[in-house]
TrEMBL record:
Residues of the HTH cro/C1-type domain: 13-44
Superkingdom per UniProt: Bacteria
Domain called TIR: residue spans: 79-220
Protein name from the UniProt record: TIR domain-containing protein
Pfam families the UniProt entry points to: HTH_3, TIR_2
Length: 224
């Protein structure tokens, strides 16, 4: 399982499921998981999926072993294991909960989750943010109308992050917090969000929300 390219495998599952006209809820019931688990799986996050359920998926969707995409091994520079979290301060509750899920990875020294909360009084905040952006390999965008309306985020944080994604292979992970114009923002919509824009966190149950936060942490861990 460790070698599966989950993003590509998720696309394959989605395609096969639609070919057979099987709903996410039906597929979820058939393999013994909840519908949000299938939704996350199709978006590249295997939260709640084990080898037994993979076998059930393969059988249900007629997926052969040769069709399962494999992940290329990429050597990651140890000096760039920073995950930059971009969010509107009006959405701090969501940021705080994500930080809880990322804390075990930080304690193990696997990542450094960076946000503007790391800036101490008296530091040159623009300089510190610029340095953090330059060192980030992964960027998590907590997207809402407030996020998209933030002049600082749109003018100062997003441009260097998008440029790093284009030129240096940085990974952008959008998380949709609330209904907003994400799908109509061409520069952002090309990055697949952890959760569907039709299933924002604000509308999710506590269980579904925790699955999404865990999926973000899993994605970051797999990348770094």
């Amino acid at each position: 399982m460790a070698e599966i390219n989950w993003e590509e495998f998720g696309k394959l599952i989605n395609s096969k499921r639609k070919e057979k006209d099987i709903s996410q809820s039906t597929l979820a019931k058939d393999i013994g998981v909840s519908q949000p688990v299938i939704s996350l799986l199709e978006r590249g996050s295997p939260i709640g999926i084990n080898e037994e359920r993979i076998d059930l998926l393969k059988s249900k969707l007629d997926i052969s072993d040769s069709e399962i995409p494999q992940k290329e091994k990429v050597k990651v520079s140890t000096k760039r294991k920073r995950a930059f979290i971009s969010y509107s301060h009006k959405d701090k509750t969501y940021f705080d909960r994500l930080a809880v899920h990322l804390k075990p990875l930080e304690k193990k020294g696997l990542i450094e989750a960076w946000s503007d909360t790391r800036i101490s009084a008296g530091e040159l905040w623009k300089t510190e943010i610029s340095k953090a952006l330059d060192q980030a390999q992964v960027a998590v965008l907590l997207i809402s109308a407030d996020f998209l309306a933030s002049d600082f985020i749109v003018d100062n944080e997003l441009p260097p992050l998008l440029e790093k994604a284009k030129s240096d292979g940085a990974t952008i992970i959008p998380v949709i917090l609330k209904p907003c114009r994400f799908v109509r923002e061409e520069t952002l919509a090309k990055f697949q969000a952890i959760n569907s824009p039709e299933e924002p966190l604000i509308a999710a149950s506590e269980h579904e929300s925790e699955l999404i936060y865990d999926a973000v942490a899993e994605r970051i861990e797999s990348l770094l």
